[in-house]
Amino acid sequence: MLNIVLVEPEIPQNTGNIARTCAATGARLHLVKPMGFEIDSAKLKRAGLDYWWLVDIIYYDSLDDFLKVHKDDQLFYLSTKSQRVYSEVSYPEDAYLVFGRETKGLPERLLSENYERCIRIPMVDDARSLNLSNAVAIAAYEYYRQKGFGGLKLGGYLHENG
User: Fold this and answer.
1) Alpha-carbon distance 57 to 140, whole Å?
2) Single pTM value for the model
């Protein structure tokens, strides 16, 4: 199972959009406090639409609490400071994709202590970063692509013109 981890998210709309991505893919969402909003925020609920019942959410009081619980798990830290591209990683079944705050990213100490597990999404030099919910979607779908999109609906309706 894919696990999406948001460390101290600040913008409710991003978290709501990410929750919707988790609902659509079956990924588990881990939220690490403190957060920049209340979980009952109207903006958060609106961004997640009516998908909240499909999302498995686990809360942690701090990054240290999360790291203690998941010290033996396969954690991958997304950062613009990494040299390794997210698509170069062969993800294990129970991967954890860890994302930092919208304004500051993940703590430098965490990145330096886990350099071999840091990955990035390529961008042009002058771009500071992608929107958090977009970055989560990009990385999540790479995980599912590598897994042959197992568990996700691949078919749909085709409409013919004329």
Assistant:
1) 16
2) 0.90
